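Researcher: Good morning. I'm working through a list of sequences from a screen, and I'd like to move beyond sequence-only analysis. For each chain I'm collecting a predicted structure so we can compare shapes side by side. This is the next one on the list. No need for commentary yet; just the structure.
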Amino acid sequence: MDKDAIAILGGTGDQGLGLALRFAAAGRPVVIGSRKLERAEEAAQQVAGSVPEARVRGFENAEAAASAPVVILSVPFEHTASTVKGIREALEPGQTLVSMGVPLATSVGDAASRMLGVWQGSCAELVASLAPQGVATVSAFQNVSAHRLQELAEPVDCDVVISGPKQARPAIMALCGLVPGLRAVDGGPLANARIVESITALLIGMNVRYKVAEGIGLRFTGLPD
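Model: Good morning. C-alpha cells for this chain:
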C-alpha cells in the first residue's frame, strides 16, 4: 500500500474521474477502481492523457481498495451497498472510506431533485454500517460539480463539508487543499451527512432552474480563516 495513494472506486464516472484528474494533477498517486478491469484501465489512460506526469493505475475494485489508505466511493447510490460488500475482505483497520453517495430518487426512476429515505439515515451511514471494524467512514465531496472538477485550468470554487469520526476528518479535509478553489469545512459527526446529502438534491434543482450546466457550488460565509 502506498501511503500517499488515493483510491477512487467509480473513477470511471464523471465526478470520480474529475477527482482523479485533480489529485493526479496535484502529484498524488491515484488508483481507479471499477467492477470491470478494462473500464478502470481506460479511465487511468484518460487521466494520463490529460495529466502527462500522472501516477495513475486502474484495477478492479477490490485490488484498488487494498492499495491506498483512503478509498473514495464514487458510485451511484444503488450500487453503494454491493460495492462495499465486494471490497470488505480487501479493507484493513486504519483505512478510511469516503462516501460521496447521495440517495437520489433517480435510483428508482424518479427526479434527481428528490431524495429517498435510508434506514440508516444517509448513504454515508449505510456505508459505515457495512464497513469492517476499524475502517472509518467519512462523508465528503457530494456537492462538488463534476464539470468543474474536470476543467483543470480553472479553480473549482466550492466548499466541501466533511463529516465523520473526529480522528478521521483531518486527512480528508487535507485532500481539499490539493484542488484549487476547494475549501474544507468541518461538518462534525457522520450523522450530519444526512443534511449535506440533501443539499445535493437542492443544488440539482437549482442547476435546472438557473440553467447552470457547469454546476452551482456551495460557499459558507463568516468562517474564520
